[in-house]
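This is your field. Have a critical look at both lines of this record:
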Amino acid sequence: MTPSAASEDWARRAARVGRCVARFRLASKPQVQAWRTNEVTAGGGRCVGCDEQFYPGEPHVEVVAAQTVVFELHHECFDVWTRFAGAGAAPPPAEPGDDEDDAGF
């Protein structure tokens, strides 16, 4: 019996979370102040949580502080980071193409 695509996706996501938990427990967690997030789909970079490369077109979270992209995380890795970094409730990721100027800030 071969595993379904859904179960393979679940297993891959669970492995990411496991690597993030291990990394953030054993190593320093990325720390930023006054940050915001963007939803992006650019490929080629690596997740700072699980160290997997982003696939082209794969949606993920970009954390921005002081108008600079600080790091990028898969959605599940972002959830782990917010819990371990003590960041509390995170702002929701902005939709692609959203701009701070449009938000009235």
Notes: DSSP finds two helices and three strands in the chain.
